[in-house]
Amino acid sequence: MFAAKGLNQNEMVVLSGAHSIGRSACSSFPDRLPPAANSSTAMEPKLAGQLTATCSAGSSVNVPQDAVTPDRLDNQYYKNVMSRDVLFNSDASLTTSSQTEDLVEFYAGNRQFLSGKFLGPIVWYHDFEDAMVKMGYIGVKTSAEGEIRKTCAFINKT
After folding, report:
1. What HEC string does the chain produce?
2. Which domains does the chain have, with CATH numbers?
3. How many Cβ atoms sit within 10 Å of the Cβ of residue 21?
4. Is 87 in contact with 67 (CB distance < 8 Å)?
5. Cross-strand bridge partners of residue 24
6. What are the backbone dihedrals phi and psi of residue 113, each rounded to the nearest 5 degrees, phi first?
7. Is residue 114 predicted with pLDDT exceeding 80?
8. What's the whole-number mean pLDDT along residues 1-11?
9. Any binding-site annotation on 69?
């Protein structure tokens, strides 16, 4: 899906970090509960137990995608991936390839220590910005194909 849009594997890992914020309906990850036994991508049991209890109230319940810093766009997402505290299979699968796992570890801040600071979080913000800008150019409609609205909710007056 990412490659078809001109995005590479590194950009896919970077953009997955957007799961650091937001909420998801329990119906979005039923295949993750209960966690599969003996799976390297299974959800961390404590989180799975909490979600099983919360989500049993109904699939319309919404839960934070990042329980640690749910309202902050940060690199906590990558720490969650490493500890298997993630909701989606797409997030858990980032540890199944050495290339993507290396990026997850880097963005989590577990590598590249320099002058008393971990570079991973700093680099992630920069890479995320670049990938978002690149994604913003995918499938852009021109005035001949659509309309750039002055106010998103309303069609421009002619």
Report:
1. CCHHHCCCHHHHHHHHHHHHCCEEEHHHCHHHCCCCCCCCCCCCHHHHHHHHHHHCCCCCCEEECCCCCCCCCCCHHHHHHHCCCCCCHHHHHHHCCHHHHHHHHHHHCCCCEECCEEHHHHHHHHHHHHHHHHHHCCCCCCCCCCCCCCCCCCCCCC
2. 3-136 (1.10.420.10)
3. 17
4. no
5. 63
6. -85, 125
7. no
8. 86
9. yes
Question: What is the reported pTM?
Answer: 0.81
Query: What one-letter code names the amino acid at 6?
Result: G
Look up residue 107 and give its two tokens.
């963005």
> Is 19 part of any known ligand binding site?
yes
State yes or no: cis peptide before 64, omega within 30 of 0.
no
Q: Which residue has the higher pLDDT, 37 or 86?
A: 86
The answer to whether residues 86 and 104 touch, using CB atoms and an 8 Å cutoff, is: no
Rounded Cα distance, 124 and 10, in Å? 11
Q: d(Cα 1, Cα 121) in Å, to the nearest integer?
A: 26
